[in-house]
Amino acid sequence: MTPERWASVEDVARHLGVAKGSVYRWIETRSLPAHEIGRLWKLQLSEVDEQEQRDAALAGLRDECARLSGAGKKVVLS
Fold first, then answer.
1. So what's the pLDDT on residue 77?
2. What's the whole-number mean pLDDT along residues 8-34?
């Protein structure tokens, strides 16, 4: 199996359909897994995709909690 190649910030921005500045902000807030190699940030698209899936799942959970609490139900997360 061939190891996954490292992607640049520009590659990731193109992959996600966002601006490079957004990718840098996500790296700074540690919400996107990245590795600093010299002065460059490198990422693996598989890690970026996994993080995107986790973020989508978390957003879905937040929406469901908001819906339930709006219906007068108590929401307890453990």
1. 59
2. 92
